[in-house]
Design brief:
The complex is a heterodimer of chains A (113) and B (350). In chain A, 49% of the residues lie in helices and 18% in strands. Chain A is α+β, with helices and mostly antiparallel strands and 113 residues long. The chains are: A alpha+beta (113), B alpha/beta (350).
């Protein structure tokens, strides 16, 4: 059961889907961890790279539906959408771990086929 | 958890056709491969890059400028927001070609020079080549395009490096990449070109001396692949952290095969882009296992006792494979050659 933001006393301001999509597009970054050394994970990149439009539009749609429509995202991308929604609700730019992005893009690819 | 990296840099052999038969060529380039990708296939591959966060594509070959549609591919990459560079032997850098390079938005041109005039022409097998090459470089510079000269250092040219440096400065080149010859392709069979350990250290000393002394003068002398590691001859920043093949880069052959590095032999293909797309090849759990699943037990005899092995993973994968037939055992390593001392002074100098 998805918790209601109101239950935690969080002010639920409203933006429309278009603005939310623009926020994700303009503000996102990816945190890429690579296995460079044996058993050591190292933060090697944190950059504002372009991601395909259909990807951030898909993310924005599910964040919007989760935050405003109380709709859970598809299972394959649930952690990704919840992480992004958390950033959004805190007023921060959306940060995608590389794994989040891979899951999201994998989902987009599965929708194509 | 699966692998979480991206092929930020892609090397792309546009064709294996070449108008030269260079003695050191690791690809043994000459004729095109039997079934090279057509333009539509190339453009479709380009379209796969954005979702993999590819930042840069480097055209190579063979001689990439021999492919008549190279500019169409470059323009498509530019439209996708991907930076593209070209590595050429310089033989076809005519005015119209330089104009095409500029029009296509190429971000940089790498040109091979392998010694002073006589040596370069000997290695490349053409008596008139060097002067054409210098004229081509001057045309690129005049067009406002960045040029990187790449020198494959071998036994014939190592003593010419200081003079070559002066020549490059006089032409107006300000980025120079030097790298040792790889024992691959024709470079494997030409014994006259092979670098001894002593000559390899000499290359290191040259980069150490000139790389430091000229860096303040808007000239960059940088080591290329298989140069290092962990001594005062290799003070790159950040320090060497191992081969990037399959971690942050991959390469594509002209018939659509994906490898960690084009210098690797064709038996090390990870997948075929005519059968699977790049995303599936890149993220397949068994892909690029030599780097992604590396553990210390994989080290070869040359690297097994090294205290830097965890960080280094056995040097350059292609050099190691070409020289020893296995990964993680790179013979071209300053640290090993000098007895695992970071200071050559402690080690008695060169």
């Amino acid at each position: 059961m998805k918790p209601k933001f109101a239950e935690f006393g969080i002010f639920r301001w409203h933006v429309d889907l278009e603005e939310l999509t623009a926020r994700i597009k303009e503000g996102w970054c990816i945190r890429c961890y690579l296995v460079i050394n044996w058993r050591i994970r190292e933060l090697v990149e944190k950059a504002h790279w372009e991601i395909p439009a259909e990807t951030y539009e898909m993310l924005a749609k599910h964040v919007y539906n989760y935050v405003y429509q109380d709709e859970m995202p598809p299972e394959a991308i649930t952690p990704t959408v919840l992480n992004a929604a958390d950033d959004f609700m805190k007023g921060e730019s959306v940060k995608l771990r590389a794994g989040d992005y891979i899951a999201l893009q994998g989902y987009v690819r599965s929708m194509r086929s | 958890m699966g692998f979480e990296g991206f092929p930020l840099i892609v090397g792309w052999e546009l064709t294996l056709a070449c108008n030269l038969r260079c003695r050191h060529c690791g690809s043994s380039a000459a004729l095109p491969r039997a079934n090279e990708l057509n333009l539509q296939e190339c453009l479709a591959i380009c379209d796969q890059f954005p979702e993999l966060l590819v930042q840069e594509v480097n055209f190579t070959g063979g001689e990439p400028l021999l492919r008549p549609d190279w500019q169409r591919i470059a323009i498509h990459l530019r439209e996708l927001g991907i930076r593209t560079k070209i590595l050429t032997n310089g033989l076809v850098l005519r005015p119209e070609t330089v104009a095409q390079i500029k029009d296509a938005g190429i971000a940089g041109v790498g040109v091979s020079i392998d010694g002073l005039e006589s040596t370069h022409n000997t290695i490349r097998g053409r008596e008139d080549l060097f002067r054409q090459l210098i004229a081509g470089i001057e045309r690129i510079l005049s067009a406002g395009l960045p040029v990187t000269v790449i020198t494959t250092v071998n036994a014939l040219n190592i003593d010419e490096l200081p003079t070559l440096y002066a020549l490059l400065r006089s032409v107006g080149v300000n980025v120079w990449q030097v790298q040792p010859i790889f024992p691959l392709g024709r470079g494997q069979t030409d014994s006259e070109l092979q670098l001894s350990e002593k000559a390899y250290l000499k290359l290191g000393a040259f980069v150490q001396k000139w790389g430091t002394s000229v860096s303040e003068d808007d000239f960059e002398l940088m080591p290329g692949d298989s140069f290092g590691y962990f001594t005062e001859l290799d003070m790159r920043d950040p320090p060497w952290r191992g081969c990037s093949a399959g971690l942050t880069s991959c390469d594509i052959t002209s018939d659509g095969k994906v490898k960690g590095c084009l210098s690797m032999p064709d038996e090390l293909v990870e997948g075929d882009l005519r059968q699977r797309d790049l995303w599936d090849i890149w993220f397949h759990p068994d892909s690029f296992a030599y780097n992604r699943k590396f553990c210390l037990d994989d080290l070869g005899p040359l690297c097994r006792s090294c205290d830097k092995a965890e960080q280094c993973r056995g040097g350059c994968s292609s050099m190691s494979y070409g020289a020893t037939g296995r990964f993680h055992s790179d013979p071209y390593c300053f640290y090993r050659i000098t007895g695992y001392s970071t200071s050559l002074v402690e080690n008695g100098g060169l």
